[in-house]
Write a structure and sequence with these properties.
The structure is a single chain. With 87 residues, this protein is an all-alpha fold. The protein has helices at 5-8, 53-58, 65-86. It is flat and about 50 Å long.
Length: 87
């Protein structure tokens, strides 16, 4: 609600929580992602694909962009460290 207390406190209506995972054996994310909706709920998304974090951050809705930029800043070194061990 514009002008409501949530907006005044800096909230946009959702809490975003991020998880990093590595799935090296599956090039096609449709094989591991069920987009059909759960418990009879309508599906929220119709497609899924892997993308570099930079691309995901660049394409996110502007209201959520600060959270994704924060993720990007914090996750990059974690991802690089993990992948260097995998090489």
């Amino acid at each position: 609600v514009d002008g409501g207390w949530l907006r005044k406190e800096g909230y946009s209506g959702q809490i975003l929580q991020f998880v990093l995972f590595h799935l090296p054996v599956e090039a096609d994310p449709t094989e591991v992602c069920n987009l059909s909706g759960l418990g009879g709920e309508k599906a929220e998304f119709s497609a899924v694909r892997w993308a570099p974090l930079d691309e995901a951050v660049a394409g996110v809705w502007e209201a959520k962009a600060p959270a994704y930029r924060y993720l990007q800043e914090r996750a990059q070194s974690i991802i690089e460290s993990f992948l260097s061990k995998d090489a």
